[in-house]
Specification:
The complex is a heterodimer of chains A (226) and B (491).
Chain A lengths: L1 H5 L2 H22 L3 H26 L2 H28 L11 H19 L8 H24 L3 H23 L4 H29 L16
Helix pairs in contact in A: 2-3, 2-6, 2-7, 3-4, 3-7, 4-8, 5-6, 6-7
Chain B lengths: L1 H18 L4 H29 L2 E2 L4 E2 L1 H30 L5 H23 L3 H19 L5 H32 L13 H7 L5 H19 L7 H8 L2 H29 L8 H20 L6 H22 L2 H32 L10 H4 L1 H14 L6 H16 L4 H24 L14 H15 L3 H15 L5
Antiparallel strand pairs in B: 1-2
Helix pairs in contact in B: 1-2, 1-4, 2-3, 2-4, 3-4, 3-10, 3-13, 3-19, 4-5, 4-10, 5-6, 5-10, 6-8, 6-9, 7-10, 8-10, 8-11, 9-10, 9-12, 10-12, 10-13, 11-12, 11-17, 12-13, 13-15, 13-16, 13-18, 13-19, 15-17, 15-18, 16-18
The chains are: A mainly alpha (226), B mainly alpha (491).
Chain lengths: 226, 491
């Protein structure tokens, strides 16, 4: 507790929001209804945008306000809206996935511990001490996103996990390095946007041509195929 | 250095124009013209670098190392576009894709070129990441161009695996930027500039750099096709249109490997006085050797001709990664040379395979028979191309593999037998399938197709020439690049 109370208000807020982002990551892992998964994802995007605003405000990094805005618009509004649109048009509003969440939760907890373990050897140089916590949390968000991609069978669920990895990465960039140079951030946002649109194209193709949105049914390609 | 801008703008603008061009005949010819023009521009760029030496500013850097890859990229893009014109006409004629698909194809072909050239010429690691991700986005719809369930499955796999992989590379890039912030005199605008990071990397925190490199290697390594991150590669190659397979194998894998080597140079510099100065090299060596051996065995299990050659690509990318991992001047030289000859040979093979599949109407190896008798102009190049890729003298790949073997014997003698056995296994894997394909009984009704074999012949002549004699200019050039990467020159 001592460590947290020595931080300035902004630092405490960042830590709080980081914990909340991690919480949404866990929620993304265990939620079974596709629609709630998308909602949680929107919340995660909003939290990351909030962190960006705090960092911009406390450090007087003008360009971060812009990236906060972009993040909010893309990650908390546009992509969730797009996913909702696909869910509706593919008739999946009531879709509930069947994976048992317990094992996933246990592995996810281990991943968090593992992330802290990896970050441990970074000694305290300058302000690394504060960032170390954040790097560990963002690494966990990334790893839990990967885990989500493994345990989710539904194509849309997989994409949400994939995008949450992107959230974790953006969070890492903002919280530890006060954002990347603006051009780079704009480029990354553009790539994410294009990827989101392309995923939509694939949802329709998979639904229409493969016939099932369950990625476990994609087994046509193998080494011994004729 | 206006040539840099020109070489980037030409494909970008033509991608936009071709997206809106309704006339297919015109746009397929434009594709050829534009690609050839870009090759000329990049050749001029190389001449300029030869005259005035390396060049760098905040956005671009052109040095001995990347300019030869730029020329190679535009060259293979040019020859592949020449091949793709009649090929895609045939595809369109067979009804595998429609007019909209063809417009997408032409536009994305140019956009893909743009992203690769941007990745090669940029001096900013963030832009490098964006370009490599952009290359995935540009090609993913091309892999699913035929819209069969298999093609969609392959594209989905490609998208998810490479997307995730490249996300890891972004995490590595963030960590690198984080490490750069603790360099005294840090300038936020230049925090991702490669040349600045390279010069000041000794002051970066070694632990952060090592963690960053793990993520960068996994990320870009996915695109190189390193085992065990290679699963997308055979699928994307076998289901996409053949010109795409040719440029993916011949160019994109090189660009990804280029990114890895750039990172390795920074990391090597940063770790030089730490406990593990060769960490990056060891990691490249183990990933490379694993890919090489696994792919050599997998060659034996293939039933699809394009899958077989994509495993051969994995095998060769493994060899190159291994070479750069060893890292001495000789191995680096071998790696650079191998990038060149593998690119030329593999794209020639894919082009030939494209015609072969049209002749026999299938990609199934068991059903492709008697190519030489049906159409000698396809059968012979396939035979020669495979001989070249398997490392037969006097082709160029023999030279680079031989150099690599010598370098291995010098520094890691106990790894040399693994290399030799792996090469023998790969050789057997390729030829057990090739022999019946080119010689066997001709199936009833098999007919020759319209094929433009000039690109293939040109590539194979170049590879043969490079195997017999490396021109002094090229040798000096690669020597400079080697000195740049490994610190010492080989000649």
């Amino acid at each position: 507790m001592d460590y947290l109370s020595t931080l300035p208000l902004s630092g405490q807020l960042i830590n709080l929001l980081a914990a909340l982002v991690l919480l949404t990551s866990f929620m993304l892992l265990v939620q079974l209804r596709l629609v709630s998964v998308i909602h949680t994802f929107a919340w995660q995007g909003a939290l990351v945008a909030a962190v960006t605003v705090i960092v911009a405000w406390s450090g007087h990094h003008g360009h971060l306000y812009l990236s906060a805005l972009i993040t909010f618009v893309i990650k908390a509004m546009f992509i969730p809206w797009l996913l909702h649109y696909h869910v509706n048009s593919l008739g999946l509003r009531r879709y509930v996935s069947a994976h048992p969440p317990v094992t996933g939760l246990m592995i996810a907890s281990m991943l968090v511990v593992f992330s802290y373990y990896i970050i441990l050897p970074i000694e305290l140089i300058g302000d690394v001490g504060e960032s170390r916590n954040i790097i560990a949390i963002t690494l966990s968000v990334v790893l839990i996103g990967l885990l989500g991609m493994i345990i989710r069978h539904h194509a849309i669920g997989q994409v949400v996990s994939f995008m949450s990895i992107e959230n974790g990465l953006f969070f890492a960039a903002v919280a530890t390095t006060k954002g990347m140079p603006l051009v780079v951030e704009l480029g990354i946002a553009f790539d994410v946007l294009v990827a989101a649109v392309l995923f939509g194209v694939f949802f329709f193709d998979i639904h229409g041509r493969v016939g099932s949105m369950d990625v476990d049914d994609m087994t046509r390609l193998s080494e011994t195929r004729d | 250095m206006d040539y840099i801008h020109a070489t980037l703008l030409i494909p970008l603008l033509s991608a936009i124009v071709m997206a809106f061009m309704p006339n297919l005949r015109l746009s397929s010819w434009l594709n050829v013209t534009v690609s050839s023009a870009n090759f000329v521009v990049s050749a001029l760029l190389m001449l300029k670098v030869m005259e005035h030496g390396a060049f760098k500013n905040n956005w671009f850097q052109i040095d001995e190392f990347n300019v030869y890859l730029v020329v190679l990229t535009t060259f293979v893009a040019m020859t592949t576009s020449i091949f793709s014109r009649p090929y895609m006409e045939h595809v369109c004629h067979m009804g595998w894709t429609n007019k909209k698909g063809m417009r997408l194809y032409h536009s994305m072909y140019q956009l893909f070129q743009f992203t690769m050239l941007a990745a090669l010429t940029t001096n900013n690691l963030g832009v490098l990441w964006i370009s490599v991700e952009g290359a995935t986005l540009a090609t993913v719809l091309l892999v699913s161009l035929y819209r069969t369930p298999e093609a969609i499955e392959a594209a989905w796999k490609y998208f998810m695996l490479c997307g995730t992989g490249i996300a890891m590379a972004l995490f590595g890039t963030v960590l690198l930027y984080f490490a750069a912030q603790h360099i005294p005199g840090f300038d936020a605008e230049q925090g991702l500039t490669w040349s600045v990071l390279f010069e000041s990397s000794k002051q970066m925190h070694p632990v952060i750099i090592s963690i960053a490199f793990v993520f960068l290697l996994v990320g870009y390594g996915t695109k190189v096709g390193l085992v065990p991150l290679h699963n997308w590669l055979p699928d994307a190659h076998s289901e996409g249109p053949t010109p795409m397979s040719a440029v993916l194998s011949g160019l994109l894998l090189n660009v990804a490997l280029y990114a890895v080597i750039r990172m390795k140079m920074i990391v090597d510099n940063a770790l030089v006085s730490s406990n593990h100065p060769h960490l990056a090299g060891y990691m490249l060596m183990s990933f490379g050797l694993l890919s090489f051996v696994v792919a050599a065995f997998f060659l034996h299990r293939q039933r699809d001709i394009k899958r077989m050659f994509s495993y051969s690509s994995i095998e060769h990318m493994g060899l190159m990664t291994f070479a750069f991992g060893i890292g001495g001047p000789l191995a680096t030289f071998a790696g650079l040379f191998h990038m060149l000859v593998h690119s030329l040979t593999k794209s020639a093979i894919f082009v030939t395979v494209g015609h072969a599949t049209h002749i026999s109407g299938t990609q199934n190896i068991e059903k492709i028979r008697g190519l030489i008798r049906t159409q000698p102009s396809v059968g012979w190049p396939l035979l020669l191309g495979v001989a070249a890729i398997a490392g037969f003298p006097p082709f160029g790949i023999f030279t680079s593999e031989f150099l690599l073997l010598i370098a291995t014997m010098k520094s890691w003698p106990w790894l040399a037998p693994i290399l030799l056995i792996g090469l023998a296994i790969a050789f057997a894997g390729l030829f057990r399938f090739l022999h019946p394909m080119v010689y066997g009984e001709v199936p009833d009704g098999q007919q020759a197709v319209k094929a433009n074999m000039w690109p293939v012949i040109l590539h194979l002549i170049l590879v043969l020439w490079l195997g017999l004699y490396i021109p002094d200019t090229l040798a000096n050039w690669l020597n400079e690049a080697t000195r740049f990467i490994s610190g010492t020159s080989v000649l």
